[in-house]
Input
Amino acid sequence: MLSLLLRNIYRNRRRYIGYLLASTIAVATFFTFGFVASHPDLSRADLPDVVLQLLLIGQIGVALFALFFVVFFHRFLLRLRGNEFGLLLTLGMSPRQLAAMIWIESLTLAALAVVLGVLLSLAATSGLIFGLSRLLGIPPLPVVFAPSALIAGCGFFGLLFVVDAALSARWMRSYTPKQLLVTTRVRQSASLSLPSIIVGLGCLGVAYTLALVVSANAVLGTASMLPIVVLCAVGTYVLFSQTLVLILTRLRRRAASWLALLITSRLAHRVLDYARILTVVTLLSAGVLTLMGVMIGSLAYIRQTATSAAEYQELVQIVAVALFVSFFLSSLCFIAAASTLYVKVFTQIDEDRRQFAQLRRIGLSRRGLHLLLLGEFALLFFAPVLIAILHSAVAIGEVTLHIIPDAATAAISGTWLAYAVVVAGYLAIFTLGCGVTWRQYTRLALRH
Amino acid sequence: MNDILQIKHLSKTYGGTGGAAATHALDDVSFAVRCGEFVSVMGPSGSGKTTLLNILAGLDTPTHGEILLDGQSYAGLDGEQLAAFRRSQLGFIFQDYNLLDTLTLGENVALPLLLDKRDPALRVQQTLALLGIETLADRFPYQASGGQQQRAAVARAIVHDPSLVLADEPTGNLDSASAKLLLQQFAVLNQQMRVTILMVTHDPQAASYADRVIFIKDGQLSTMLERGLQPSRAFFTSILDTLSTLEEG
Output
């Protein structure tokens, strides 16, 4: 049985590779950041406290990213295999055997990801330490891999992977074989409800208020970061699902054209998946926009305000580290957003091929299918960015209100200008990404 | 001859809570299947055939009534016991084959034995040979035709000597030649290996291979036809007659 299991993993490799890649990236980034942040010379180098705090915040951000990446991609992988699990249960695999199978598989993949990720992080660390020394304006630091970072990383991922494997196994065990067999065919349903809308709006309102009011105080501001993100996530999810339901039912009732009918029915069928994906991409995009906007903005501010050479030097060091941390984190957010979209799009290809073949047979042209996919991808790529612009604008507003002291008008307008540039760049990248994905996907899905 | 399967007063009701109208998918259905018998269940769509099959497979629970397979009741079995019961007592054949894409045909057939911790080596080869696909053991499902895949699915359903094989529209996705071949193999398995088969179908041609056809309508047992000593042709005609009477009334 075990050898059959391993063979099954091997032949499922194309599906596992996405998850393996995601967890390898998560491991590599966590270790890289840890190695850089706990570099012995860095703590000795007489840097301002703010720098060390920034590194700590960065480490927490990277940990959250790793957590999200591992859990999200694993769940996605397992859900894709619902059919297979349902069949195994029907044939008489016991729920306990199924849970054991998932547990073993998960931990095998986790071990592989840790080994690959650590190796990758060794290379990345060397490069980053060199770059950071130049940014800080200090002589090149020797490449050192602090054992404390290694231990912390192994502890973190050991716990994360074991808990995730146990929860995933339990989660799949909770389904009946019948539920698993039909997961991809059953329509997801969500209904319009006023209480949900109120809760969603309430969450966003509280989050925005917290962001704008509490953050004046540095300690409270840092402490309220997590609740703000959570409230934002809940609010965004609720609003996305409710808005989708509202629009989809309206459009479908009218069914003005075949295009509207097909798009609305396809979205409605997987409405909760869409709401989930749109929320994730929105939050990650908001992260990128905020981090980059603040970073570029503060850079400009410091140039203008530093009075003495010594103060300038200190500020530059702070900004250099802030630059490093925020660039690192926003790259991670961007990678996560891009891979979430990639996974969402390319995991539906088998189902789409079948459906498209049927549609071609009843006379829908290739051009029609191109149009259909373009509509779907545009929603998938741009709806999150638009909401993310709203979220991040609030965050930038918070920064200009409270973090920049005595609210120098030049600094504020500089920050907003920087933010506008970042938004424009991000929109450009997403437009390009949407176009490339559309081209590739239509080519693959309509090949036959 | 003793009954391998006894179905007593089986009912299944969906909904009916919170003011919604209840649907009686099955309404007091009772019948028995003898050991080594080949039984077809026929009925129009929505008549409750699939619900019956799901309950027999242990995938769904009845609202009322009892099922005894080889004297053992399904009621009161927990998830683990039900799984053990399924893998030793039941074999499944689905309309869309449902082979695991990542396993070869041979491995797919070996799966029920491995789940039951039995050595697959000899038994798998024998079963594949019985269905005439022994040369295809190392092919993957996508490298085999629909008919070949369905024969592998049949091999998987009988490899572990189950008490009962449940087949859900097994010929539904096959062309007429492959369907005919499959049904002839069903007949051979049934007559020579004494495999007990319960097949749900709406194809009268397929049903005519059975020893007995049970018709259900609106969740209730409506009538039954025994083949007896009639030739296939005559049995087929009487199935058609019964179907048309059912559809009229």
Observations:
- Chain A touches chain B at residues 1, 4, 7-8, 11-12, 84, 87-97, 176-178 (CB under 8 Å).
